[in-house]
Structures are given as C-alpha cells and as structure tokens.
Amino acid sequence: SQIQGRLYKVHRYFLERDSLFMRGALSTIQGLQGQPIELHGVTSREFESLLDFLYEGQVRLIQRVIPVSEWINLLGAASALKFDRAREHAITAIDNASKRPEAIELIILAEKYGITKWLRPAYVSICKRAEPLQLNEAERIGLDKVVKLTQAREEFLKETLGANGLRAVSPLPSPYPWPPSNRAQDIIERTPTPAAILEAARIIDSVFFSSDIN
C-alpha cells in the first residue's frame, strides 16, 4: 500500500479479512505482483495505527496504556477504509478513555466520522460549563452551532437564575463593557447539580434535536 508517498508492505490477509472495501480494491490489482495500491483519505499516522491494531490487536491493550490520540488515529483509518471491527473498537476505547477529548473535539470527530451519540453529551457539556467559547472553538464548529449553543446557554442560565431579569451569560466573550452579574458568574462556576445537568440536557434537546423528538 502507498499513502502520502510512503510505501507499506502489508499481508493481504489482514486487509481482505476485515474490510469489504479493501477486498474490492485489492481485487483490481489481482495478478500484478509488487504493484502498490494507493490509498486516499487516510494519513500515514492513521494507517500505522490501523496496522498496529490488525497485527497486534488485543495484546497491545494488556501490555500498555494506549493514548487517546492513537485511538483517534485508528478511528480515522478504520472509518476511511471501512474496517468496521477496528472502528467499533476505537469508538469504545475513546468512550472509556480516562482522559476523553474535549467537547469541541468530540463534536468535530462525531460529525467527521458519523458518531451521532457523541453530539448530545458534548453540547450539554458546553451548555453548562463555566468557561465561554473561545474564538478558535467557535471557528472550528461553525456559525450555526455557535448560534444554537448561545441560545441554549442563555436559556440554561435564565432557568438556573430564575425569572428575575438577570442577564444570562453568552458562551462567547461579551461585546459589552460590563462584566456578567456576580450571581450569574457564581452559578456557572459551581459544580452543576444533577437537576442542573438534566435541565441543560432538556434545553439542548429542545434547541438541537426538537425535530427528532417530535
């Protein structure tokens, strides 16, 4: 196989066993000895993580702790090349990682690789967190989600503060010269209660998934 100008010598057995996509791609060069197949949509690092998984599999999990970045690389290669077993393994490993990706990163990964179950918890996390969205985060997830998260967070803070007219705190840095009220700032910096988490989840469902629920 050839990826980003780098050649890899891989046993056909592993590629054909676990991926119908690769089985079909390899069938097009049947009989052409030594002819590399060029793979697109996957980086060298991602492919190397896939090879590690195919050759070593479960043994690696016992021998050492795998960093979440490597599982993300495996997810990228497995998704691009249709290795379903490796993809599911990477998703489970990321779910169970002691240090999971930040909410923004989970949103990006979820949309890139079609893992919709990661979206709702990531939105809820951003809705109830104390820190506002940073400009680089907003640029990464796009205007549509920024607007919806702004709406969700302001509704969450309004519900949390009560209907007494206090201004909610936007998830983006405020364009106004005055700081948020001390009470609002105090509330968003506390550890959210179970009731607050449920409220954030309800608001996220209303803002992002109302069409799916109705």
Per-chain topology:
Layout: E1 2-3, E2 6-7, H1 12-18, H2 20-27, H3 44-56, H4 58-63, H5 68-81, H6 84-96, H7 103-113, H8 119-128, H9 135-141, H10 143-161, H11 182-189, H12 194-208, H13 210-213
Antiparallel strand pairs: 1-2
Give me a quick take on this structure.
By secondary structure, the protein is an all-alpha fold. It has helices spanning 12-18, 20-27, 44-56, 58-63, 68-81, 84-96, 103-113, 119-128, 135-141, 143-161, 182-189, 194-208, 210-213; strands at residues 2-3, 6-7. The protein has a two-stranded antiparallel sheet.
Structural descriptors:
2% strand, BTB/POZ_dom, single chain, mainly alpha, BTB domain-containing protein, 13 helices, 214 residues, two-stranded antiparallel sheet, SKP1/BTB/POZ_sf
Number of helices in the DSSP assignment: 13
Major pleated sheet: 2 strands, antiparallel
Q: What are the segments in which pLDDT stays under 50 over at least 5 consecutive residues?
A: 163-170, 174-181
Share in β-strands: under 5%
What would you note in describing this structure?
The protein is an all-alpha fold. The protein has 13 helices and two strands, in the order ββααααααααααααα. It has helices at about 10-20, 20-25, 45-55, 60-65, 70-80, 85-95, 105-115, 120-130, 135-140, 145-160, 180-190, 195-210, 210-214, and strands at about 1-5, 5. A two-stranded antiparallel ribbon has the order 1-2. Helix 8 crosses helix 12 (about 195-210). It is elongated and about 70 Å long.
